[in-house]
Amino acid sequence: IAGLPIVTTQIRAAADLLSEPNNCLFCTQETEDIAAKIIALMKNEKLRASMSRNNRKFAEMFAPQRIADEYIKVYEELRKN
Fold first, then answer.
1. All residues at 6 or more sequence positions from 28 whose CB lies less than 8 Å from its CB, including other chains
2. Is 56 strand, coil or helix?
């Protein structure tokens, strides 16, 4: 899934972590707006390719080993105290 262009609303983590047009196109919950953003992506190959590159790189931050390493660091710090 990582690397796909994204169409989403500006809620919770999406609004905090994603940026338009680097990672996604933000839309309202209106059917017409969602469809318009999907069509815009379908028509713009450069935008899709750019989002895909950016989202693959972005997904690296959430790789299981990277997350596990961060947890281990936290637990080691807690154990020291």
1. 9, 34
2. helix
Q: Is the pTM of this model over 0.90?
A: no
Residue carrying the six token digits 């947890």: 71
- For 25-42, b where at least 16 C-beta lie within 10 A, e where not — what string? bbbeeeeeebeebeeebe
- Asked if pLDDT for residue 81 goes beyond 60, the answer is yes
Name the pairing type of β-strands 6-8 and 24-26: parallel
DSSP summary character for residue 4: -
Structural Rg of the chain based on CA atoms: 17
